[in-house]
Amino acid sequence: MAKFYELQRAMRAMRQSALQRGALAILDLGSTKISCLILRFDGLDPSLASDQVGSLAGQSSFRVVGSAITQSRGIEFGEISSMQEAERAIRTVLQSAQKMANLRVDHLIACFSGGGPRSYGLNGNVKIENQIVQDEDIARVLSSCDCPDIGDGREILHAQPVNFALDHRSGLVDPRGQIGNKLDVDLHMLTVRAKTIRDLAHCVKRCDLELAGVASAAYVSGRSTLVEDEQELGAVCIDFGGGSTSYSIFLKRHMIFAGSIMLGGNHVTRDISLGLRVPISVAEKIKTKNGGLIVTGLDDRDLIEVGGETGDWEHDRRTVTRSELIGIMRPRLEEILEDIRTQLEIAGFYELKSQKFVLTGGTCQTPGLDTLASRILGQQVRIGRPLRIHRLPQAYSGSTCSALVGLALFAADPQDEWWDFELPSAGYSSRTVRKAVRWLRENW
Amino acid sequence: MRSLKRKMRTNIDPAPSIVSYRLMRLMLIPRLRLILTLGIPSLVIFCGTLILFLNINVHENIEAFKKDLKRALVERPEFMIKVASVDGASDELAHEIREIMPLNFPVSYFDLDIKYLHKVLNDIPAVASAAIKVTVSGVLQINISERIPAFIWRKDDVISVIDEKGEFIRLVTSRLDYPELPLVVGEAANLSITDISNLMEDNQYFLEQVRAFVRVGERRWDLVLDNNLRIMLPQTEFLAAFDRLMLMSQSGSLFSNQLSSIDMRLVERPTVRVGAASVDQLTYNSSGDL
Description:
The complex is a heterodimer of chains A (444) and B (290). With 444 residues, chain A is an alpha+beta fold. Helix content of chain A is 37%, strand content 27%. Chain A has helices at 2-21, 46-49, 83-101, 135-143, 194-206, 217-225, 228-233, 265-276, 280-290, 313-316, 322-347, 369-376, 402-412, 430-443, and strands at residues 23-29, 33-41, 62-71, 75-76, 79-80, 107-112, 118-127, 154-166, 169-172, 182-193, 210-216, 235-240, 245-251, 254-261, 303-305, 319-321, 356-360, 380-383. In chain A, the strands form 5 sheets. In chain A, strands 3-2-1-6-11 form a 5-stranded mixed sheet, with helices on both faces. In chain A, strand 13 (245-251) and strand 14 form a beta hairpin. In chain A, helix 8 (265-276) crosses helix 9 and helix 11 (322-347) crosses helix 12. The longest helix of chain A is centred in the C-terminal third of the chain and has 26 residues, at 322-347. Chain A is globular. The two termini of chain A are 36 Å apart. By secondary structure, chain B is α/β, with parallel strands linked by helices. Among the domains of chain B are: 78-144, Roll (Ubiquitin-like (UB roll)), CATH 3.10.20; 151-284, Cell division protein FtsQ/DivIB (Rossmann fold, 3-Layer(aba) Sandwich). Chain B has helices at residues 18-27, 30-54, 56-74, 91-100, 114-123, 193-202, 204-207, 238-250, 279-284, and strands at residues 80-81, 83-87, 107-108, 127-134, 139-146, 151-155, 158-162, 168-172, 183-185, 210-216, 220-225, 230-232, 259-263, 271-274. The longest helix of chain B is centred in the N-terminal third of the chain and has 25 residues, at 30-54. The termini of chain B are far apart. The chains are: A alpha+beta (444), B alpha/beta (290).
């Protein structure tokens, strides 16, 4: 586990150095769109600093200077499927965003929803030597967590201590300075396939940038859409993407569980395409213009021109009623919501006292999704939009960009300050000792 | 059948090429951008200018080129003057002007120094004033107003023609070149020739008898008549003296051959001198009125 501790420290150090440079690129790799923001970190905005608001968890320390968005290519289910195509798409957004910012950026933080995220709850405990909890005790207890077998070819994406307990006194946020004998920690760890991160790193490197951090899209959209009391009391953020739908459960301001299912808005489009026998692009247009989930009597009379360019007049002049369209869309979204409900049940979300559901992402703009979700998931459902950040363009303030905005917030305030504590050097490591013994044997 | 027309590329890749992407990132380095956009161009311009002006050959070439260009413009047929036309001058003067004019036709309008030409023409003694203009058809039109010969002036052995204001016109070899003009003799006679002009205004008929007007001592006039009678006029008020003479002459034949001179220098007391040939008659007719 000490190796994992070092890994998290290294990632944090790289992110810190990127922030010190003053400029950072934010990249959201979605299955539908790839979007990018250029953030400029130049200290506190004096107009904000003067009114005693404080640092707003780092939100006031940066502003958006460049932004770009493009249709994504080479990305399926939230992970890279074609390296060349994805690299070109990333290059497109990076170029236009840097041009707009008129700023050269060298570090990039990216988020994605694919890679098969798996959540683990970890537990570690350590005996405190001199009664009072100090920095190195925190470091020791974090490194003492017993790491489960995360599987071959997987890598840790996030690891956050969500709870500290000192002598059976649980629910501590910061146990430093308190007196006790035994310190326990609950750690939440999220792993993804290593290949996903490797592909992403390769694409970013081909664009001459350095990958300064990766984050799960589920986590960062939760950061941007959940308000503070939702994060504190417990809520789930469901990000309806194009290729995948990801969710993250927040409690006590920390993500305690995350996951994703491989179904999204693109599947709805494909269903419409199959059902109405139209091209994908036409199906997408019909979905966004006329889509819905709740049938009313009026919808039977609402005729939608399907259109087509085959030359067959009968085929090109077809119309469908809106209720037919809803009849295609609704089962698929019900399936997605039911899948999420199953997973949340497995995760034990329904054991929590506060059960709020915040829907975000592109597909959540479907009219009636909140009604449908309240029937399937639970009572308290709302559509979430990302937090406003300084100088964010209007086009990016919708629910489609909540992961992007959340990633900007994550970059400014990464919630991983625990990994800053220096691990005490507990004697020489066995490898160094073995080396020394071998050297002695060879020379004496 | 396959279309012969080239297929239009409808979906052009919006992604920048890797070269253009790297170039853009290079240009975003502030110092490099400053060097590339400001430093290098200004250095090139500075060096180029320096080389150009240090190299004398180039400088000369440029000068020659400029000159050629100017020539080509100046010598366009539209600007060329082919002939000169001299109006208002006698044949003799026109010939003289053509010889003296410092021009080789055809000449360009821009090469023409009108002021100098004007000065040259006005410096010709026979020319009172000259007007020069260039017509559209490329003719140099010179309008001359000539001085009109009024007197023959002989000083020592030099005979010249002068106008009524005493301005010198030209030398002549013989008095007979202008037999109709009255003769003026004496040092600096031309300077006060206006006296004679005034005199001649009223007494044209009488003065036809005058052979010569003689300036004496650069201060007064003598009139020598055909019969060698010399009328001496005073320095001042000679017009009054002349009038008086005319009055005197009405009473008799004053200007007959008998007198050799009439001295009017003292107007109150005219004096006559009798010619040698007439002395006998005088003695014979001693009581007669003069």
